[in-house]
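TL;DR need structure tokens for one chain.
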Amino acid sequence: MSGSKIIPLLCLLSLILSVAGCGGGGDGGSVSGVASAVAKKAATVTDLGTLGGDSGSSYAYGINNKGQVVGESTTASGATHAFIWQDGVMSDLGTLGEYLGYSYSSAYGINNKGQVVGESVTSTGESHAFIWQDGVMTDLGTLGGNFSRACAINDKGQVVGQTITSAGAWHAFIWRDGVMTDLGTLGGDSIAFGINNQGQVVGLSVLSSQTRYAFVWQDGVMASLGALVSDENSGSANAINDKGEVVGWSSYALDPVVWQAGVVTPIGTLGSGEAKAINNKGDVAGYYSPAKYEGNYTYGFVWRGGVIIDLASLGGFHSAAYAINDRGQVAGYSITSSDAKHAVLWNNY
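>> reply
TL;DR here they are.
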């Protein structure tokens, strides 16, 4: 069996990406010194459960304005499958196939039409990007290689992610009207994490120097957002809203960051972390790890109006927020009091 088959996540690590929810981090430009106040507020946190009972695990990676949530969950058989959750019910989206008894899928994004994107194992053992709609999962193919994953979809049905090309390179792509197009790179590999309704795409590209830069792609041109201070710093762009505001992370700031009109603002000074999503109101969701825990524990947050709001957990010690809709609903996961990892939905924080 080829080592590139059956969910080749180790190959993705050559990009040194944060792969949770198809996300990464970082931005570029000048640095704002604006600090954020911290508010610890009680939030309504809903346990979305799993596809396999309380002993299983689940993670929520995407949410639309209807409150539909998507992600991945273990099933009763022990497989990991993509799910959609709505009105209190978690449903299995299935897979593109099964290979030697192995099945896998994960959903990373959903638009306001209910179209879902992610990745799934195929009957040949490769992992391919998919789009799911009305009960049907469709293979988006690759650019000639044996891997692809879809990270985000806008309301026009345009999909972005990463694929292996026929030359064996890892490149960001956009899929429109049934055609997958290579977005190119800034010198090395690339991956696209987000797209807005204007068709602007954000992600991460590795330079020939192995520095990782955030990028924005528009109208056929990939432009670097730059490192925050010098080429010694790495970063990535995780999401972009319809106003063109970008969020992600920077190795210089050691914080989640917001990029607006060439100015980068670190979100607080609570420790290292990532901003994973931004809605059209400018509310940001993500996670941080307090310095005293050295990355062993993370906490979900919302950043709103310069204030960081800590999100409640299910009773365990850490959590992470991966998506936020225009209603302010936040999706992610939390450790439960029994030490299980469950997808959650936060409201009323």
